[in-house]
Design a protein that fits this description.
two-stranded antiparallel sheet; Ubiquitin-like_domsf; FERM domain-containing protein; protein tyrosine phosphatase activity; single chain; FERM_domain; FERM_N
Length: about 120
Amino acid sequence: MPFKWRLKKTKRYEISTKNAFIVGVYLLDNSFLECTLTADSTGKECLDSIGQRIELTETHYFGLRYVTKKLHFHWVDLDRPLKKQLDKQAQSSCHPPCLYFGVQFYVASAHRIVDEVAR
């Protein structure tokens, strides 16, 4: 792995490279995941990483949201770098930056969804 980890007695870790950052993601069942991304990683890369970790293949029905400085939820633009979006618009009180995994597109007929986890 290209990142160097420094473990401390507090069982927390820091990334020693300035090109990487950690983002926390709350899933639909309120469980929490941490993703390590590079500064130029897009929202799609983060979403794909989460999908892979929870064994979800049909990620195109889902998206990521964050809380803005005005305390509103805003969907992450999956094509733009995630760090730029969070630095510019997200509430800064949460460290690491927090995202919320959610259903972005509703499908009227659930039998059309092939993936059992997505259903």
